Amino acid sequence: MEPEPPDPGLLSLFSVFLLTVPSGDVTTALTALILLLLCSGLVSGSEVAFFSFSPGQISEMEERNDTSDRRILRLKERPRTLLATILITNNLINIAIVVLSDYILWRTLPETTFQSWSEWVVHAIPALSESVDGITRLFNFLVTVAGVTFLLVVAGEVTPKLYARINNLKFARWMSLPLLVLRDIFWPISRLLVGWSSAIENKVASGKLIQDQSARKEELDRAIELTVSLDLDSEKEVDILKSIVKFSDVAVRQIMTPRVNLVAVDFEEKVNEVFKTIRESGFSRLPVYQGDLDNIVGILYVKDLIQLLDKKEEEFDWQELIRTEVLYVPENKKINDLLKEFQLRRMHMGVVVDEYGGCSGVVTLEDIMEEVIGEIRDEFDPDEELSFVRLDKRNFIFEGQTQLKDVCRIMEIDTNTFDNLSGESDTIAGLLLETLGRLPRAEQEVVLGAFKIKVLLVNKRRIEKVKVTILY
User: Fold this and answer.
1) Rounded Cα gap, residues 295 and 351, in angstroms
2) What 3-state DSSP class applies to 65?
3) Cα 1 to chain centroid, rounded
4) SS3 letters for 268-298?
5) Is 3.30.70.890 the CATH classification of the domain at 384-470?
6) Rounded-to-integer distance, Cα 261 and Cα 355, Å
7) How far is CA 454 from CA 397, 414, 432, 442, 464, in A?
8) What pTM value is reported for the model?
9) pLDDT of the chain, 472 residues: tens digit per residue
10) Which residues are CB-neighbours of 440 under 8 A, at least 6 positions away?
């Protein structure tokens, strides 16, 4: 009985391996590939070595002060540039490895190799006879993609990084000189990458910071409610604690006395008119303007006028008592910063200016304190009933210039209720104007979330009175 001839598919497979004896070009390429893998491992390991130093190791390098340690410390002075240099070098080396690997594979494995392998598989498993092309592509992928990737990961990433983590100082000393040279070579590219990454990082980090701060403040609010609300009559204490948490987020324009409500005296007024303004307002400090309110020339302290009470009107010039040191405050300045400035400069009043330098209003130390502890009232303040009317538990009448936070306090709801509706507005009139984009007509009603706002009184310039109804 004659023996069966060898399987042609198996013969083809064996012949492939016999043909893969490297030629001169392939041998050179293999040598270059090994060197590139070594370089890739050294550069990859450098990333771990240079960024894993402990404070003790850094102190040791500073004390030793030999050449390699000085080079390491120089590289560590600009960590972003160092990282960019490492990444640029590593990517270039990996690209070269992929190109060389592809060249070597196609020189050692002819185009018919993968086809022969798939035919051998089909011969062994006849059920796959209709999938020859798919099996060929699978072999191609496994050898050219998966194989090269495995080689890069093991030889160029994992192994050197494990070694560098254990021997980081030794590894960094080896690579300090090459990395210094590479840093100078790739300096233009690394500088560009560092600039881009910094810009993106700042943008992302700012947004993340805002989100984190918002989340932390919400958590603090819930903690305050859970702990303080267990006590009797603790609503005021809860409001104060929440106000302290949000203190640094409040802008000056949210608490200032707006220009339309500003009480000031004209530089050219007679002294009897000045005294009349003081009696009617009850304020201890008054801004003094010349020409119009955009030209504030100083602040008049009422206590300075006491020395003139026993003199005749024609015997003194009240303008000499004006204090010309004026603190100008931007509208968007945070009140915690303003409080520090008030304390530093020992002042109690600032003139709020808009982006064009015009007077928007005034802000006082009392306004800042009221933001935390609530309204501070004295004998000169008007009765509370004049600023709002409580019709019942769900219906209130407010002046248009009432601050939204005060509206919330009066209606006994969370002071942040209108935050998602108000945008840039701080008063209930501003909320309506921002929503409608125009002055509303009298009796017009607007539904915003859980509230219905009805305009009761409006003139050509502003909304004077509104009715707010809590719908649910």
Assistant:
1) 11
2) coil
3) 85
4) CCCHHHHHHHHHHHCCCEEEEEECEEEEEEE
5) no
6) 20
7) 9, 21, 10, 8, 12
8) 0.44
9) 444 444 444 334 334 433 444 455 778 888 888 888 888 888 888 888 888 888 788 888 888 878 888 888 888 888 888 888 888 888 888 888 888 877 777 777 666 666 676 667 766 776 666 666 676 667 666 676 777 777 778 877 888 888 888 888 888 888 889 888 988 888 888 888 777 777 776 665 555 544 555 555 566 556 555 555 555 456 666 666 666 666 677 788 888 888 878 889 998 888 888 888 888 888 888 999 998 888 999 999 888 887 766 666 555 678 888 888 889 999 888 888 888 888 888 888 999 998 888 888 899 888 888 777 666 555 445 444 446 888 888 899 998 888 887 888 888 887 777 777 766 677 888 888 888 888 888 888 888 888 899 999 888 888 888 999 988 7
10) 432, 446, 455, 458, 463
Which amino acid belongs to residue 158? V
Q: Give one word for 357, left, alpha or beta, with left for phi > 0 and alpha for psi -120 to 50.
A: left
For tokens 């948490």, the residue is 245
3-state secondary structure of 320: helix
Q: What is the DSSP letter of 386?
A: G
Residue 353 CA to residue 332 CA, distance in Å, equals 10
Q: Residue 223 is inside which H or E element, if any?
A: helix 187-228
Contacts of 117 (CB under 8 A, 6+ apart): 13, 135, 136, 139
Q: Where are the domains of the chain?
A: 8-185, 249-373, 384-470
CATH number, domain 249-373: 3.10.580.10
